[in-house]
From TrEMBL:
GO MF annotation list: rRNA binding; structural constituent of ribosome
Protein name: Small ribosomal subunit protein uS17
Domain of life per record: Bacteria
HAMAP family: Ribosomal_uS17_B
CDD domains (alphabetical): Ribosomal_uS17 (cd00364)
Source organism per UniProt: Halochromatium glycolicum
One Pfam family matching this protein: Ribosomal_S17
Gene name in the database record: rpsQ
Alphabetized PROSITE patterns for the sequence: RIBOSOMAL_S17 (PS00056)
GO biological process, alphabetically ordered: translation
Length: 86
């Protein structure tokens, strides 16, 4: 099931929701430079990822990988849990 081609994007983020069955909501933050003023700003994106074993909890740091669309909003899958929430 795992496609190991080099075009898959891998992102790291924090789990902010796990209320759905086998699905987690991950917020991915990035820093972008303001085009005029040059200040670095934080921008975030929320993605839904497939968590087959329901192993993630809120606050966990995870790595997710882009995959084929699994549902209307879910096209990422959990690769690994980097750090558990305290």
């Amino acid at each position: 099931m795992s496609e190991n081609n080099e075009s898959n994007r891998i992102l790291t983020g924090r789990v902010i929701g796990n209320a759905m069955d086998k699905t987690i909501t991950v917020v991915v933050e990035r820093r972008v430079k303001h085009p005029l003023y040059g200040k670095f700003m934080r921008r975030s994106t929320k993605v839904h990822a497939h968590d087959d074993a329901n192993e993630c909890n809120k606050g966990d740091w995870v790595r997710v990988e882009q995959c084929r669309p699994l549902s209307k909003t879910k096209s990422w899958r959990l690769v690994e849990v980097l750090e558990r929430a305290r």
